[in-house]
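Methods, example record. To illustrate the input and output format used throughout this study, we show the complete record for Transposase. The sequence lines were provided to the predictor; the line carrying structure tokens was produced by it.
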Amino acid sequence: MMKKFSKHTPEQIVAKLEQADKLKAEGKTNGEVARELQVSEATLSRWRRTYGNMDRHEAKALKKLREENEKLKALLGQSELEKAALRELAEGNF
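The corresponding predicted structure is encoded as:
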């Protein structure tokens, strides 16, 4: 499975969202904020939906959980392959 490319870690995203909030408080538009953070308005909007109410600690924990989940999925897939191979051996279909 190919990992989706990500330029920013969750902690960096939360930091940029904090910076975006400060810029918005100064009266800047979404477009100006996005340009200053060097991301598109769509990316900024997606980040707000995903990480909107998180602090940096929570974002770091989320990243760790996602990495652990990927490892577990890989292990489960490997286990299922081994079970299928053993099943075929037991049935004599080799």
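Annotations derived from this record:
The chain has four helices and no strands.
The longest helix spans residues 56-91.
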